[in-house]
Amino acid sequence: MVQQTLVLVKPDGLVRSLTGNILSRLSESKLEIVAAKMSRVSREMAEAHYMHLEHKPFYPELIQYLQGELHDRRKVMALIYWGEDAIAKVRQIAGETNPEEASPTSIRGSFGRIRSSGLFENVIHASSSEEEAEREIKLWFEPDEIIVELYPTRREVIKELKVRQWA
Ligand code: IDP
Ligand code: MG
Q1: Cα 67 to middle of ligand 1, angstroms
Q2: pLDDT tens for residues 48-58?
Q3: CA pair distance 121, 117, nearest whole angstrom
Q4: I need a surface site. Which of 95, 124, 138, 158 has the fewest CB within 10 A?
Q5: CA 164 vs CA 36, 71, 146, 167: distances in Å
């Protein structure tokens, strides 16, 4: 089944210069990258992304983590991978959530660690189901930032829209 999945290189991945390595590992999947960008992460974005974990004891620190406050690197790299069984393939290469339990050859097993607070600092995010992928892709990307048609869109005329242009 052709699927799409959201990947985030989290701030620890960026601050440790792991982007190239992570993209190399993910390229083994033979999936196609159909969108990519650097993104600042507001508190609202971080909370929306992890809304399903709101009740967890590690949630406040997780929000700080995604915002880059734990690594002084306030951004993430967001990508969409697209192709046959994309969700399972990317999760496989990413490895288990807990880096100590992740396969040593996976991204999280190679580069993740557990903070002294207990938070799993695990280098990347990867969507875990089609429903989650759809919600997350629509949260992180606008339709025109993606080079294929993933979900239905509608056209709207927005009057007096103020946009920033090159001077
Ligand atoms: P996932 O990233 O493998 O999909 P989720 O359960 O969605 O795992 O959790 C989101 C993130 O929250 C994880 O990537 C990890 O950074 C952190 N996390 C999840 N479970 C725990 C835990 O039990 N202890 C500490 N941190 C956790
Ligand atoms: Mg998850």
Answers
A1: 15
A2: 999 999 999 99
A3: 10
A4: 158
A5: 21, 30, 21, 9
Q: Which pLDDT value is given to residue 126?
A: 99
Question: Are 6 and 127 a contacting pair, CB within 8 Å?
Answer: yes
Token couple for 54:
């709101």
* Sheet strands (E) in 112-155: 113-114, 120-121, 124-126
pLDDT score at 14: 98
**Which of the residue ranges 43-47, 106-110, 161-165 would you say has the lowest mean pLDDT?**
161-165
Ligand closest to 10 (CA) is 1
User: Does the beta carbon of 119 lie inside 6 Å of ligand 1?
Assistant: yes
- pTM, entire model: 0.97
For β-strands 120-121 and 2-9, DSSP reports them as: unpaired
Active site residue 125: yes
- Burial of residue 133 (CB within 10 Å: 0-12, 13-18, 19+) is buried
Tell the CATH superfamily of the 2-145 domain.
Answer: Nucleoside diphosphate kinase-like domain (3.30.70.141)
Give the model's pLDDT for residue 20: 98
Share of the chain above pLDDT 70, in %: 100
The pLDDT of residue 101: 98
122 lines ligand 1 (CB under 6 A): yes
